[in-house]
Write a structure and sequence with these properties.
Blueprint (H helix, E strand, L loop, with lengths): L4 H14 L1 H14 L25 H17 L7 E4 L8 H20 L2 H14 L2 E8 L7 E5 L5 E5 L5 E11 H7 L7 H8 L8 E10 L15 E7 L4 E8 L4 E5 L1 E2 L7 E2 L1 H27 L3 E3 L29 E3 L6 H18 L6 H4 L7 H13 L2 H26 L11 E3 L2 E3 L4 E4 L2 H27 L9 H11 L10 H31 L4 H13 L2
Antiparallel strand pairs: 1-16, 2-3, 2-9, 4-5, 5-6, 6-7, 7-8, 10-11, 12-13, 14-15
Helix pairs in contact: 3-5, 8-9
Length: 557
């Protein structure tokens, strides 16, 4: 089905218009949280404007950046394997399949950590903390050793639609590009007369910019038996708004965009709700109070002066200098030169500011990390671990929302790209399935190995350790209670919890072979002991009996 440029542009413009109320709200939030990129309804100029002149208190800026850094460190710690692939439920007892998916997740994590993921994800978390919604795209490069790269687009430049599970499945975003950039990015693209004219003009080639719409959406009609670009599950195309022409149409096998919300808003509203949105009243109040106290201090340092008319000369505010008044003015009550309007309760203002700052910090989960400041030098490692675990447990809600949003990108997009690029080892034959004349491998289940998940697993391990201590006490009374527990299976699962994988963790087949070899060795040792016992007993018989035994053995009797 061909792309209707006019229809798609109408949809893009309508969704952009519907987003305008949110644009105004986001602009007001960004002006106090991230003023360096508060250009949603305000035009960005080549010369940086003085964006910080209206900010008198930086608590919300510090809190937003702190929460953003906490989310990055907690959810996607750099350099670590923070995701593990698990087999679909039908293969959960197949050790070979389990090990294959685990090796695949290790490969994916190594490629992710080598990519620009952290650079793209950091502004996603910052926008989740400030405006409530962050977006990131994953592109397939075709390079086996760097198969994907990531790109973030700020709010105010895109719209999206959801499926019934609450995951984004349609994206419409716009960006500005010069004709030089367009010809370089789309060497096979079809360009209209305005773009071509700008490219032909050497002055406009690098200066005149065009608005480009980038659309990714499910393909309504396609031939699933074909694997070309125009029959992939998702259509992807670029439209130039000035020329109203289709630059390029292609496709992707998996939806290549993650849209993550910090919290969901009211029903029917797809945009997220952030801590900054809740904190805006306190932000406005503390900003006003700080400005007022700054003014009060300025007045105390440079007081207002009330002087009589008809003074001799000007008021001299320099240290050690004189100001002359008319004769007898200083003797008159209220006469001469004096301060006025310089009163104010500075300590009360500071107390009120601290109250508002505490409100802001609480909304940004600052209390999660407060226990660290209470750590005593004499505290043991076990006590410190308890404080850390208790603090991280408070992060469950934020963690769950992000995991749900990024899961399709991890389990489908990244897995599919690596599978197509051939970076995975050969899959077990029982996994491979035929579909429409092609072979397919089921998507994995994704489990997160974040700091928080490790806390949860540590808790589970601690509970099991307590159970086995009691079981040991029971076994002293009745050893048969150990038959109720498969200690080998428990050891294997515990090793996986701590991150062991092949070749560090032997497969069940290897463990079986070791057990069989041990049994054979034990049987051989038992046979040798029996032979030694028989020889010892025979040595105690008389020579005639021993010779008879030997003759019987030789004759086979």
């Amino acid at each position: 089905m061909s792309i209707s440029v006019k229809q798609e542009l109408d949809i893009c413009r309508q969704e952009e218009s519907d987003r305008l109320p949110m644009d105004s709200w986001w602009q007001s939030i960004k002006e106090v949280t991230t003023p360096r990129d508060a250009y949603i309804t305000k035009t960005n100029t080549p010369v940086p404007s003085n964006d910080f002149t209206k900010i008198h208190d930086t608590t919300v800026i510090e809190s937003a950046e702190g929460l953003s850094n906490m989310m990055t460190a907690q959810l996607t710690p750099a350099g670590e394997d923070w995701v593990r692939y698990e087999p679909p439920f039908e293969f959960e007892d197949d050790d070979e399949v389990r090990e294959w998916y685990m090796n695949c997740s290790h490969i994916v994590m190594r490629l992710v950590n080598q990519s620009n993921f952290q650079m793209a994800n950091q502004p996603v978390n910052l926008e989740r903390a400030t405006v409530g919604t962050g977006m990131m795209m994953c592109y397939e490069t075709g390079n086996k050793y760097a198969p994907f790269y990531f790109k973030h687009s700020p709010v105010g430049t895109y719209t999206f639609q959801e499926d019934l599970q609450g995951h984004a499945d349609t994206l419409r975003r716009h960006f500005q590009a010069t004709s030089h950039q367009l010809f370089k990015e789309f060497p096979e693209g079809a360009f209209g007369p305005k773009v071509q004219a700008a490219y032909a003009d050497h002055k406009k080639r690098h200066s005149e910019k065009f608005k480009i719409w980038h659309v990714v959406k499910p393909r309504d009609e396609r031939d699933s038996s074909k694997l070309d670009n125009v029959n992939m599950p998702y259509a992807e195309f670029y439209i130039c708004e000035a020329d109203e022409n289709l630059i390029l149409e292609t496709g992707v096998n998996e939806f290549n965009t993650m849209v993550s919300r910090f919290q969901h808003g009211a029903d029917g509203i797809i945009w997220g709700v952030s801590p900054a949105r809740k904190a805006m009243p306190a932000v406005a109040q503390v900003n006003y109070l700080q400005e007022s106290l700054d003014l009060l201090l300025d007045i105390k340092i440079n007081p207002r002066i009330l002087a009589e008319a008809g003074m001799v000369g000007e008021i001299d505010m320099r240290p050690g200098q004189k100001t002359l008044t008319r004769a007898g003015a200083l003797a008159t009550p209220g006469g001469g030169v004096r301060e006025w309007g310089s009163g104010g309760d500075y300590p009360m203002g500071k107390d009120r500011i601290r109250d508002k700052q505490d409100q802001i910090r609480k909304l940004f989960f600052n209390a999660i990390w407060q226990p660290y400041s209470d750590v005593q030098k004499e505290m043991t490692a076990e006590e410190f671990r308890g404080i850390r675990d208790q603090s991280e447990m408070l992060f469950v809600g934020v963690n769950a929302r992000y995991e749900a949003d990024i899961n399709p990108m991890l389990s489908r997009r990244l897995f599919g790209i690596c599978l197509r690029q051939g970076v995975f080892p050969e899959a077990p034959p029982q996994l491979i399935k035929e579909s429409n004349g092609y072979y397919d491998i089921p998507d994995p289940l994704t489990t997160f190995q974040t700091n928080l998940s490790r806390v949860m697993k540590r808790k589970a391990v601690e509970h099991k350790d307590q159970f086995f201590l009691r079981l040991q006490q029971f076994a002293q009374v009745d050893p048969t209670v150990l038959d109720e527990i498969d200690l080998a299976a428990h050891t294997r699962e515990l090793a996986r919890t701590y991150g062991f994988r092949g070749p560090e963790l032997r497969s069940e087949q290897e463990v079986l072979e070791i057990a069989q070899a041990r049994l054979q060795a034990q049987q051989k040792e038992a046979e040798q002991q029996q032979a030694m016992q028989a020889a010892d007993m025979a040595s105690k018989f008389s020579p005639e009996i021993q010779q008879g035994v030997v003759d019987a053995a030789n004759t086979g009797l």
